[in-house]
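Standup, Tuesday
Yesterday: got the pipeline producing structure tokens again.
Today: sanity-check two examples.
Blockers: none.

Example 1:
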Amino acid sequence: MMVKIRKFKQEDLTQLVNIINDSYKGSYEFIPYTEDSLLKEIMERKLNVLVAEEKGEIKGLISYWRGGWGEEIDFLCVKECENQSKIEDVLLQEVEKFVSGEKLFIALGAEKIDYEKWAKRGYKPEGGLYHMTAELKELKPIPPIPKEIVLRSLKIGEEKKLVEVVNTAYGGERLTLNSIQKWKERDPIFNEDWIHVADYKGEIVSVVVSRRDIKYNSYFRAKRGYLGPAATLPEYRGKGLASALTQKAMNFLLEKGMNCVGLYTSERNKASVSLLKKLGFKVAYHWKFLTKHFK
């Protein structure tokens, strides 16, 4: 097997789009790529993309990035062929050379994983992610919170406070100072009213951002909202703020014409999963994280 691994070039786009779309066809909520949408995603997310080439033909690709969850393999797609598994191994080994932290992971559909194959590669299950959804049929009462805390929308000029609360709650960079501007560029009707906060004596202590699920709605002709990020400062947890803000955001989305809502949460965050189920959310899909440690 004479396979050459090299960096992605823009002239590879046509072949890469075909490989990705064939690999993920029929997958949960998969939206096929175009050359423009794939290039945009590579640029915006700063994906590092490698391709596997054999006799001048691209057989597969792998991409990785450093995101909010750590160093992650994003795409791992190889054409169906006799050497498919071996080409996957070569791509994985190549991308592992770029790991700068302690571990690298890939998220795969929980029901499709060949755990034995991944174990041979050095990857083991370590957590996972739920996509949870809920129907929006009627306005519901907002759960009670301490009287001294006020629920309101974000005010213009409070972006720095929003970023500080979210990043502090997550323990790392989840938002940047231009996050709101990016959301506005993606959706012309989005503004600060869509960001719901809990205010204690003039300070933001909890937040839930609501948005329209633009890509999903466009492709599937749906009316689904999206919640996230959601965050509460550690010292204000356990006061019902997350429940209250989430319900406030759900009511807001219903009033904006959405008939359902989705979000993502860690399978390990039992408190969040329990809270969301009480508000009507159900697990729509489950990804498992397969992680390889290097230190």
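Example 2:
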Amino acid sequence: MARTRYATDRGLIARMGATMFLLGLVFCAFILVLFFVLFEYQRRRAGAGGDNGSSTGLIVIAAVIGIGSAFASYYWSDKIALSASGARLVGPQDSPAAARLHGTVDRLCALADMPKPRVAIAPVQMPNAFATGRSSKVAVVCATQGLLDRLDPEELEGVLAHEMSHVAHKDVAVMTIASFLGIVAALLVRFAFYSELFGGGGRGRGGGGRGNSQGGAIPIILVVMVVGMVTYAVSFLLIRLLSRYRELSADRSGALLTGRPSALASALVKVTGDMARIPTRDLRAAEPLNAFYFAPAFSKRAGQFSMSSIFSTHPPLEKRLKELDKISQQLSR
């Protein structure tokens, strides 16, 4: 974690560590199963005299693309998020809203003893905010125009304190590492599916030893597909769990930094309530940035626990408010 005055939550850190450990176990199991599958495939090829390396090629291509995607996500997360949200970087002289945003960020940087990130405004009426960047030196914090119009100064400070804690805790790096396995597994499923759909079956109907060897690739590709699907499903759920812990940690760190958890709670209620009145079409357009946002742009039952909650990037509203209330009670003692 960066050396800032943002408070840490040992309980949440332990849970995030356990989640990362489970992801590591899934990754190890994934590699071992693929190694066994490839070993068996090579043994069959050696016995039948075949030379088809399609399964090996699928894994290599998926790994290369997965590494490339993770690299791009890590190094250019700020540019990707700004482009997707239509936001632009602003200076304190650009507008009254920009001056207010810069002033709030300046106060938080002084409180947290951290470098000032770049500041941006997204020209949309959906009230939300995000911060991203691989380090505090290249970070960017962005607020939508809707958020600036709706929140009072203390509420805005609470939201930005939450977002800047993601930068202080290097959450982009954490989530990039955690997502790598899911990316590779998802690519393997897709490549294996199209390999069988457009080529696997046809090769298997050929005659002779070579045809039989290639036909043996069909079940191997199916095994790779199933392994990839299971790995993706498990890693997806673990990553979403890690993301929810990350949001709770940012709530806690931001509330303790400002000393006003009630302001952050008020902002949460306002943002969630106002987004419920925004047309679903507009919310769905912003949904790809859910993992970055202060509050999810689209949630069928925001604030209520349901089975869909386990797939969410953010904890339910009620849970976030409950945790903030606990912090208020601790600070009042």
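Quick observation on example 2: Residues 1-333 form one domain. The chain has twelve helices and four strands.
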